[in-house]
Structure formats: C-alpha cells, structure tokens
Amino acid sequence: MTRRIFKSICFAAIAVFLASLVFIMGVLYNYFSTVQRNQMKMQTELISQGVTHEGIDYFTGLKTYDYRVTWISPEGVVLFDSQSDAENMENHLERKEVKEALENGYGESSRYSVTLMERLLYSAKKLSDGTVIRLSGTQNSIWMLILGMEQPIILMFVIAAGISLFLAFRLSRKIVNPLNELNLDEPLSNKEYVELRPLLKRISLQQQQLKSQAAELRHKQEEFETATDNMNEGLILLNENGIILSMNRTASKLLRISKFCIGKDILMLNNALALQELLSKAKNGERSETTMKLNGLEYQLNASPVITDDEVSGIALLIFDVTEKEKAEQMRREFTANVSHELKTPLHSISGYAELLKNDMVKPEDITKFSGQIYAEAQRMIYLVDDIIKLSHLDEDAGDMKREDVDLYEIARETVRAFEPKAKAAKITFTMNGVSAPVRGVPQLLNSIVFNLCDNALKYNRENGSVSVDVQNTDSSVVLSVSDTGIGIPARHQERIFERFYRVDKSHSKEVGGTGLGLSIVKHAAKLHNASIELHSVVDGGTTVRIVFPK
Length: 551
Ligand code: ADP
Prior knowledge:
By secondary structure, the chain is α+β, with helices and mostly antiparallel strands. Helix content is about 50%, strand content about 20%. The chain folds into 4 domains: about 1-150, Beta-Lactamase, CATH 3.30.450; about 230-320, 2-Layer Sandwich (Beta-Lactamase); about 325-395, Orthogonal Bundle (Helix Hairpins), CATH 1.10.287; about 405-550, Heat Shock Protein 90, CATH 3.30.565.10.
C-alpha cells in the first residue's frame, strides 16, 4: 500500500509539473510573440522614417541582420529587397500585410514557409508617398523556446522530482502508519481516520457476531460433551478417513487411550482385522457391528456412517463393554449344562427303578426299598428344581423384589425353630443367641440366607454336634453368624464353595440331600443386600459363616 501511495503521489507530482511546464511555456511563448511583433512594428516604423527621408539611399549599407526588408510600390512591384533581387520578385499587392497597409496604413500577418520550414512574421507600413515598407522575420517556435530554456527546465525538473520523491515518501508513510497501527482488537478505539469509521464499525460488529457465534458453538460443544461424557457407552466420532475427531470419557476409559489421540488414525491405536472390516463397511455407507477383545476385555463395536449430501462424511463408533454380559452368558451356558447334568442323574435312577418295578423284576420284599429310592431321588429333584427356580428368580428379577423393614433376629429364630425336629433327629443341638436387629431387605431372601446356612451347618455336622445361630446389632452393621462343629471345609475349597454346583465332596452332598446351589443362593442374596460374607472353617474343627449387613 505504501508503495502504491508513493507511486501515485510521484505520478501526480510529475503530471502537475508537466502541466505547469506546458502552461508556463504557453504563456511565455505568447509573451515573446507579442514582444517580437511589437519590435517588428517599431523596426518597420524606423525603417519607414529612414526611407521617407533618404529614399532608396537609405538601403545602401543597411545591415538588416535576421530581418528581411522589402520596399514595395503602391502597385505591388518590389522596389527593393534585402535578400533577393527585386526585379525577379513577383507582385506583392495581394500579400495580406501589404493589402492591409495600403488600406489602413499598417498591416501584419504570419505565414508558414514550406521552403524554410518555419513560421515567418510580416509587418508592413504605408509611407506618405504610397509605397510600403515590409519587414519579415522568423517567429520563434515553442520548441525553440524550450530548447533555449533547456538547462533551467532540467534543473527545475530535478528539483521538482527530488522534492516530489521526498514528500511522496513522507506522505505515504504518514498515511499508512496509522493504518498499520490500527487496534483491530478494539476497532472502535481507533480515532485517526474518520473515513475508516464505517469499516471499523463493521469489523467491530462482525467481531461481536463471531464472538457470540463462538460462544454458542462452545456452549453446544459443552452440551454435547456433557451428554456424551455421561453415556455408559463409548462414543468415537471419526472423519471419512478414520481420523478421530472426538471421543467421550467412556470411550477413552474403555480403550485406555487419552484425549491426545484426537487427530490420529484409529487404526494406529488398534489395527485389529475386525476393526478394519468394520470401518471399511462404514466407509461404504453400511451399518455394522463386531466384537473385539482388547486389554483382556470384550467389547462390542457398532459403526454407523454419517451421511451428508449422499456422501459418507464421517463414522460414529459406539463401544460397549460386554465383558460382564459375555461372562454372564458363559455362566448361563455352564449353568444350563450343569442343571441338565444334575437332573439327568436322579432321572436315570428313577427311570431305572421304575423300569425294574414295571417289569416285575423286584422281589416283593424289595418294593418298599425301591419305591423309597424313587421317592428320595424325586425329592432331590424337587429340592434341585426349587433351588434352580430361586436362583433364576434372583438372576432375573432380583431388583424388583419388594424390600421391607424386618427383624433379622426374628427371621433367624423362626428358621431355627423350624430346624429343631430335624436337629433332634440328627442328635444335634441348635442354639439361638443375639438381639433384635432391624434390617431393610427382602424377607424371603433373608430367610433363604439363614435357611441355607443352618441347613449346611446341620448337613455337614457330626453326631452330637452343635449349631449356634447368632444375630448382633452394632452401630455400623447387623451380623448374622452360623457356627457348627462339623467336618469343616479344606482351605483350597473355601474360595469356590460359593460357585454354582460346587461341592467339596459330591457323594457326601448327595447323601445329605445337597444340591450344590445353597451357598450360591446365599452369595446372591447377600450381594443384593450389599452384605459381605466371611468364612472361617477348620477341617474337623467346624465352620463359621458370618454375613455382615452394613447399615
Ligand atoms: P450343598 O447343597 O451341596 O450343600 P452348598 O452350595 O450349600 O451346596 O455348599 C457347597 C459345598 O460347600 C457343600 O457341598 C459342602 O461341601 C461345603 N459346605 C457348605 N457348608 C458347609 C459346612 N457348614 N461345613 C462343611 N462343609 C460345608
């Protein structure tokens, strides 16, 4: 800009200089022409006086310098000419200046001479005898004038150019500097140029609009981030080339990657074949899903193409941690297999005994024994099915079970009372201790806990052994403990006895009518009450199970 202003000022200065030169030269030329004409008039007057006094003798020895003097008779015949032979000259009567002089006493004219290639000035005066004295001289052209003033003009040009350059330089900087120093952060604070105010106002307005748009965008971004960060699923947005544009908190947690991965290719983080296929399908505009193992966990990935103007402009990747789901699925499969297996054994026994009875292959005295076996196996199946139903209830709709304020001591006392006949028959002493302990929970589940613990304490006890049930109410918790003086559990099994169908001694468990599900029900029910389980058992020394319900 400085350069353009500088150039413009220089051009303007030179143009002004040239225009002034032309004007001044014009005026000068005019002035000199008038002076020359007046001089010629005066010279003509002088020569006329001389000729009037002396006649033709006046011309003898007359020096005319640049002038040409011609004496013409009233008829137009040339009587004398200072440059040519008068006799050979044509009649001058028709010459304009001569004609005027004859008519008015004095005449003037100027003509361009093709022969001499210059303009000639003529002045003529009528003498008293009727003859005419004519004087002619070369009229200086403007070019000659300029050539004559060559040096001062060049000097003036140099001075004018120097001053123009200096002023142009100063001026252009003076104009441009305030523009360079404009404070565009606060456009309205600039006061230098009034002409710039509309522009500055516009800039200020646009800045405000930009600011409010940026704030709105930030607000929307925050809203989006809050919404996506609170999602349980991981969400990653990719562009059409698989570059990560954004990810929510869950995604970075699940994939154990930081937000620094934004801007990187997702395949650089993980180039599993499943992910590559998923992305290439999404790039082709197809929705697809896959599962993938990562960091020892199982993930389900759903990829949906983001389509703008019929083109895939990005990919939304949803990530679910399905490890627990997979585990549950696996457990369910194992459970179903175990249930089938557990049911198969008593069914086979029942079917075997029944077949023998049907074919009359049982001695009459053995019928009671056989039917007793069938009854025992059927009973086992009933217990098993009961426990399976309880567990599947716990699996399916444990959350929907109604919670009530109950007294755990009362529940335990009732259960102990129900066990008494059985205990008496097995010659085992049952004692109940403790204090009233209010608990908020599901009564039938609390009942199941006490029942299964007491049942185990009785089943895995010895003759003349004892079982003690105790309920304590402390400031922080309610504790139910069931202790027995039974066979105890070897340390290596203690971890696993809460698994479904896990039994230390399968045949012993079967003998005493165990299903292998009692402690699983206890574990499940305790978990639903946020209670923890503590097990203390010594082989041949007895077992104590403590269930701690936090308040
Ligand atoms: P079961 O129906 O076989 O008793 P549980 O799930 O209740 O199934 O118990 C799992 C296994 O834990 C039992 O088979 C048994 O071996 C062991 N067990 C449970 N309670 C006791 C106990 N009080 N004393 C000794 N062993 C026990």
